[in-house]
Specification:
The chain has 7 helices and 6 strands. With 232 residues, the protein is of the alpha+beta class. The longest helix has 20 residues.
């Protein structure tokens, strides 16, 4: 599987396994009227906020601008659960991985940072140590305001809805709903994820509300993708 398949922005990802190096080259899908230098400063600031939240993240070896691309070279830290062969029918095998992802989401909620909790954004090394690997783009209020400024009138509501899903009040349901992006039958595991989230203290509402919210988040994101509306 190509690593680029896990990206929904214009990202080129290469892996040099011989030296354990991941190189990511980022390009915005939408012109927001800011310079590449400015954008890099925002990404670097976001990366620091993730580290300050004690969220495990790969070490950046170097970062720079190449033409209009942002380039980040990081230590390779393993595979996500899709690469590990995730299968809804074998949920119990991946329960430890999912619990570690929920514990990481708990840190993002505690620090009130914008966060993309898609299961593909977490990787595990040979010892099942977790790392969060998605620090571009930062879905913060500043970039949201820039995106809305350049949005067509019929895109505004959809973009607003999508941006709020990266805030602390939606992260658990967002995480769960994104399993539908991996396997359409993932609703079968919603109740188990719901219970795991309750057990670690990051969800207290009813299962029906949890399920409804998770499915709606995925529906809104799918609608945006089908209309080829990019957030950033």
């Amino acid at each position: 599987m190509k690593l680029n398949e896990f990206s929904v922005v214009s990202t080129n990802v290469t892996l040099d396994k011989s030296i354990g190096l991941i190189t990511k080259k980022y390009l915005m899908n939408v012109d927001l009227g800011i310079s590449t230098i400015h954008l890099k400063g925002l990404v670097d600031k976001y990366f620091l906020s993730i580290k300050e939240a004690d969220i495990p993240i790969p070490e950046i070896l170097q970062s720079y601008i190449e033409d209009e691309l942002l380039v980040y070279e990081t230590i390779y830290c393993g595979q996500n659960i899709i690469e590990l062969g995730f299968d809804v029918s074998k949920f119990s095998f991946y329960k430890t991985h999912i619990n570690k992802m929920l514990e990481t989401i708990k840190l993002a909620i505690k620090s009130n940072i914008h966060f993309d909790p898609h299961p593909k954004n977490f990787v595990f090394d040979d010892n099942d140590e977790i790392r969060y690997v998605d620090f571009f783009p930062p879905y913060d209020d500043y970039l949201k305001s820039k995106r809305l400024h350049y949005a067509a009138q019929d895109e505004v509501q959809l973009i607003k809805e999508n941006f709020k899903f990266f805030t602390k009040d939606f992260l658990v349901e967002h995480f769960c709903g994104d399993f539908l992006n991996i396997d359409k039958s993932s609703e079968l595991i919603f109740e188990e994820i719901f219970q795991m989230a309750k057990d670690i203290g990051i969800y207290s509402d009813s299962f029906e509300n949890f399920k409804s919210k998770a499915k709606n988040i995925r529906r809104v994101e799918d609608t945006r993708l089908q209309r080829k509306i990019f957030l950033l």
